[in-house]
């Protein structure tokens, strides 16, 4: 089979697109004929060696996939040949990745693809959707009627935060860096969108939520905790999911006297059961057309190295040339 893989961590140009043996499903595994995969920032961190996982050699890159079940192991009983599935959390913690024509995946990391949902959409929503769901509901316990702020509403995770918050009837204020991206956020359901380049974000938050925010979802790599706490309501929850090397200053008094919480989490630490609970909501909302991913580019799997470079240029270098996810197809 064709696959995009590395022999050792390094730059995007080290990714090889070549032939590897087609895997056989183990006892509790499902062999998936891959129809679509998606690139995430964490994929580039693993490939570059920024996250010190022990990797199989050769290591197929990538976390997300969608496709059709080809075969199942003797102890795998949730799916059968011909079923459409999607999943994430591969290529992490020593697991083999997904950027290949076939992938053998433990069935606990796979979910049924809803009728009417394309493989492109299922792959694109996988990691970002589960991340957003875990943060909003497992960590922050978002409730109907509450108010959410998320930086970068047109990003992969940010766009899911907007839609999921609206699915449970919360109010959402978000930021974007251009008029085009502001319109995307409005179409996703955001109640208020602020251009962070030309408008005063703090003033807009004060106008939108004079009583304070219930949930602040932080996507910036360098969070301003002092400013965030100043805009939180009593019992506010601050979700942190970016900035591995970031350092922040926090005055404790305003934080604890508001009963605030700072919640940090990494999606790949969540149990299979927690991720499946998220996937069930995601599948239902996608089937009901309440949730969709933003797809910025669709590329052939053979161009994985270029896709990683594009993702890195936008994630680490702020080039602003990408809106939405990069999807690749074998």
Q: Your description of this structure?
A:
The protein has 330 residues and is an alpha/beta fold. The chain folds into two domains: 148 residues, Medium-chain alcohol dehydrogenases, catalytic domain (Quinone Oxidoreductase, Chain A, domain 1), CATH 3.90.180.10; 140 residues, NAD(P)-binding Rossmann-like Domain (Rossmann fold, 3-Layer(aba) Sandwich), CATH 3.40.50.720. The protein has nine helices and 16 strands. The strands form three sheets. Strands 3, 5, 6, 7, 8, 15 and 16 form a seven-stranded mixed β-sheet that branches. The protein has a six-stranded parallel β-sheet with strand order 11-10-9-12-13-14, with helices on both faces. A three-stranded antiparallel β-sheet has the order 2-1-4, with no helix packed on it. The protein is globular. The N and C termini lie close together (10 Å). The mean pLDDT is 95.
Jot down its keywords:
Rossmann fold, 30% helix, 6-stranded parallel sheet, alpha/beta, single chain, 330 residues, 7-stranded mixed sheet, 16 strands, Quinone Oxidoreductase, Chain A, domain 1, 2 domains
In short:
By secondary structure, the protein is of the alpha/beta class. The protein is 30% helix and 26% strand. Helix 2 crosses helix 3 and helix 2 crosses helix 8.
**What is the radius of gyration computed over CA atoms, rounded to a whole number of angstroms?**
20 Å
Q: Residue share in helices? A: 25-40%
Distance between the termini: 10 Å
Sheet/helix structural class: alpha/beta
CATH domain class of the largest domain: Alpha Beta
Q: How many separate helices?
A: 9
Named at the architecture level, the CATH assignment of the largest domain is Alpha-Beta Complex
Can you summarize the main beta sheet? 7 strands, mixed
Shape type: globular
CATH superfamily of the largest domain: Medium-chain alcohol dehydrogenases, catalytic domain
Low-confidence stretches: none
The figure for the number of domains is 2
Number of strands: 16
Strand content: 25-35%
What integer is the average pLDDT? 95
Order of secondary-structure elements: EEEHEEEEEHEHEHEHEHEHEHEHE
Q: Assign the CATH topology of the largest domain.
A: Quinone Oxidoreductase, Chain A, domain 1
């Amino acid at each position: 089979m064709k696959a995009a893989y590395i022999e050792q961590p390094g730059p995007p140009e080290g990714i090889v697109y070549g032939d590897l043996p087609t895997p056989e499903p183990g006892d509790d595994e499902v062999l998936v004929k891959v129809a679509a995969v998606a690139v995430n920032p964490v994929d580039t961190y693993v490939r570059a060696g920024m996250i010190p996982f022990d990797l199989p050699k050769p290591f197929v890159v990538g976390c997300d996939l969608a496709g059709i079940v080809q075969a199942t192991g003797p102890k795998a009983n949730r799916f059968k040949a011909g079923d459409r599935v999607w999943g994430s959390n591969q290529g992490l913690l020593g697991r083999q990745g997904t950027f290949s024509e076939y992938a053998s995946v433990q069935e606990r990391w796979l979910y049924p693809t809803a009728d009417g949902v394309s493989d492109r959409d299922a792959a694109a929503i996988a990691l970002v959707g589960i991340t957003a769901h875990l943060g909003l509901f497992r960590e922050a316990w978002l409730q109907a009627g509450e108010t959410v702020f998320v930086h970068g509403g047109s990003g992969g995770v940010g766009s899911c935060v907007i839609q999921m918050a609206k699915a449970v009837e919360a109010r959402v204020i978000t930021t974007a860096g251009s008029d085009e991206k502001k319109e995307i956020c409005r179409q996703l359901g955001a109640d208020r969108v602020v251009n962070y380049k030309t408008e005063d974000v703090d003033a807009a938050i004060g106008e939108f939520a004079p009583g304070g925010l219930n949930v602040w979802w932080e996507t910036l790599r360098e969070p301003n905790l002092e400013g965030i706490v100043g805009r939180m309501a009593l019992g506010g929850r601050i979700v942190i999911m970016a900035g591995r090397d970031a350092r922040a200053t926090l005055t404790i008094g305003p934080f604890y006297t508001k009963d605030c919480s700072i919640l940090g989490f990494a999606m790949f630490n969540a149990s299979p059961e927690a991720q499946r609970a998220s996937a069930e909501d995601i599948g239902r909302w996608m089937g009901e057309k309440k949730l969709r991913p933003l797809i910025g580019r669709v590329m052939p799997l053979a161009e994985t190295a270029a896709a990683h470079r594009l993702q890195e240029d936008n994630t680490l270098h702020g080039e602003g040339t990408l809106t939405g996810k990069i999807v690749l197809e074998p």
